[in-house]
Design a protein that fits this description.
The complex is a heterodimer of chains A (106) and B (122).
Chain A: E1 4-7, E2 10-12, E3 19-25, E4 33-38, E5 45-49, E6 53-54, E7 62-67, E8 70-75, E9 85-90, E10 97-98, E11 102-105
Chain B: E1 3-6, E2 10-12, E3 18-25, E4 32-40, E5 44-52, E6 58-60, E7 68-73, E8 78-83, E9 92-100, E10 116-120
Parallel strand pairs in B: 2-10
Antiparallel strand pairs in B: 1-3, 3-8, 4-5, 4-9, 5-6, 7-8, 9-10
The chains are: A mainly beta (106), B mainly beta (122).
C-alpha cells in the first residue's frame, strides 16, 4: 500500500498569512494526487486534483504542486473560511490512501 | 444538481450488521463508480471499496474482505454498503463519493454524500 505522510499536523496562522502543507508518498504516484478541505461535521471537499488542477469553484488562492513523491498545497493570503483540516490523497494505486491531515487553526 | 443522499445514523450492537444507502441524483448513475470511505478519530480517512455503477463489479480494501458487500440498484440510482460482524472499531462516519468510469471526465471524489454515523456499542 502507498503510505501518505502530511506535515505539519497542525499549523497556527493568521488571516492574510501564506500557508504551505507538505504531503509525501511512500512510492512514486506521478501526479495522481488530490487535496481536500474538511470542516467539522461536513464531508471533505475536493480542492485540487492531478496535483495542481484547481477544482471548479475553488478560489485561486489555493494552489498545488509536485510530482513523484513530494507535493505541496499552498494557500496564499489565508481567509477566515480557510480554517479547516486539509488532507492529501493518492489515486495512483489501490487501495486509495489518505494523509493524516493538517489542521489550520488561528 | 449533483446530490448523494445517505441514510441516517444507526446504532448497532457488536456482531451485528449495518446497511448504509447512497441515493444519487442529478447525473447519470451508470457513468460512475461509487466509492465508500470511512472516517474515525483514530484512523483518519480510509477507503473501504467501490462498485461500478454500470456493471456492479466491486473492489474492496483487503482488511474488510469477508464482511463487506457493496451493491447497487440502478432502477432507483442507489448504492448500498453492507458491513457485518461489527466491532467497536467500526464506529465511524461512512461516506459515499462518486468517481468517473472513464466515459466522463469529472475528477475522482468531486461529490460526496453527507456522511452516516454508525455507532457500534453494547
Amino acid at each position: 500500500d502507498t503510505q501518505m505522510t502530511q506535515s505539519p499536523s497542525t499549523v497556527s496562522a493568521s488571516v492574510g498569512d501564506r500557508v504551505t502543507i507538505t504531503c509525501r508518498a511512500s512510492q512514486s504516484i506521478s501526479t495522481w494526487l488530490a487535496w481536500f478541505q474538511q470542516k467539522p461535521g461536513k464531508a471533505p471537499r475536493l480542492l485540487i486534483y492531478k496535483a495542481s488542477t484547481l477544482q471548479d469553484g475553488v478560489p485561486s488562492r489555493f494552489s498545488g504542486d509536485g510530482s513523484g513523491t513530494e507535493f505541496t498545497l499552498t494557500i496564499i493570503s489565508l481567509q477566515p473560511d480557510d480554517f479547516a483540516t486539509y488532507y492529501c490523497q493518492q489515486y495512483d494505486t489501490f487501495p486509495l490512501t489518505f494523509g493524516g491531515g493538517t489542521k489550520v487553526e488561528i | 444538481q449533483v446530490q448523494l443522499e445517505q441514510s441516517g445514523a444507526d446504532v448497532k450492537k457488536p456482531g451485528a450488521a449495518v446497511r448504509v444507502s447512497c441515493k444519487a441524483s442529478g447525473f447519470t448513475f451508470t457513468d460512475y463508480y461509487f466509492h465508500w470511505l470511512r472516517q474515525t478519530p483514530g484512523q483518519g480517512l480510509e477507503w473501504v471499496g467501490r462498485i461500478n455503477g454500470k456493471s456492479g463489479d466491486t473492489m474492496y480494501e483487503k482488511r474488510f474482505l469477508g464482511r463487506i458487500s457493496l451493491t447497487r440498484d440502478t432502477s432507483i440510482t442507489t448504492a448500498y454498503m453492507d458491513l457485518s460482524n461489527l466491532t467497536s472499531d467500526d464506529t465511524a462516519f461512512y461516506y459515499c463519493a462518486r468517481g468517473p468510469r472513464g466515459v466522463v471526465s469529472t475528477p475522482l471524489f468531486d461529490h460526496w454524500g453527507q456522511g452516516t454515523l454508525v455507532t457500534v456499542s453494547s
